[in-house]
Amino acid sequence: MTAPVVTAEKKGESIAMTAPVVTEGIGGGMKKMQFVLPAKYDSLDKIPKPTNLNVKITKVPAASGAIHKFSGSCDDEKGRVQVQKLIEQLKEDGMEIDEGKALENYLLWRYDPPFTIPMFRRNEVWVDLSESQVDYLVNKFSN
Fold this sequence. Notes:
Blueprint: E1 2-6, E2 12-16, E3 21-27, E4 30-35, E5 65-71, H1 76-92, H2 99-105, E6 107-110, E7 122-128, H3 131-141
Antiparallel strand pairs: 1-2, 3-4, 3-6, 5-7, 6-7
């Protein structure tokens, strides 16, 4: 899939749609959607400038987290159910995790276009982990 991008110079450029498309709740029923750009845009100055003021180009800092992979169609409610499964697994693994914070701040990663047959769609939910939580899991499972 490609999407036309109109830059401030009014030139069109097709950019391949990459996976995943990430959605995040930002409160008040609002969502933020993130598109991962292809590798050729390896610096901010190479990215075409959007003409829509609501579109922001942001470099996302490195982070550590836990994911739960699942298939099928996915809406917000199914995403929350999958986050709950991830939280339960982390607790079973002995990790202390703030359930409310995880349910409020998770990311939903969708890897396939909407016309993909649901059973073949790949999705993931991401929950941020602190450095101490990552260290705990590494120590627990590296033996």
